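User: I'm new to structure prediction. If I give you an amino acid sequence, what do you actually give back? Let's try with this one:
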Amino acid sequence: MKKRSVIIVAIMALLLLALSPISTLAQSDEAAVASSKPSLRGALAIVAPRVAAVGKEISMTVFLRATQEPFEGAGIWALTRDKAEVLKEEMSALREDGSLAAAEKDYEALVDIHGIPLGRTDEDGKLYHTFTEAGGYLLVAAKKGYFPGFTPIGIIDTPEAKPMPEQSSTESSTG
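Assistant: Good question. You get back a string of structure tokens that encode the predicted 3D arrangement of the chain. For your 175 residues, that looks like this:
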């Protein structure tokens, strides 16, 4: 019984050694070319306040997800809810498009079509911006060759405090 087990293990090992090079040689040229195409270099992330006031400057930071390092030169756009839905659909179609290599998929150009450009990040990955209109937005950080980062932000009007009217002495004595 022990002899059979050793023989079976030896035969299995030989088969594995013989089949490994065969599967490599059987790979088609198309598969080899597809695997050598450059892919996206990574994904971006954006950090910003969830809520900000109209007319107040806010700070946004973009970093590379894999290393958590600040990312210089990323563009940041603000999208309304309607534009964000359209962008989501178009990004899905672009992601599933098999005719383009990952590095050729220009998400930045797609965001630029639908978004309001806010600017580009500095060497510390920061961008400062002051919103002039209230509303709900989706902030998108993008750069060609990278998958974009997203975060929502709400911009609100802050009502100005008005002084309370003074009460007359007759109103306060009748009570």
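You can read the tokens as a compact description of the fold. Here is one thing that stands out. Residues 9 and 15 are 10 Å apart (CA to CA).
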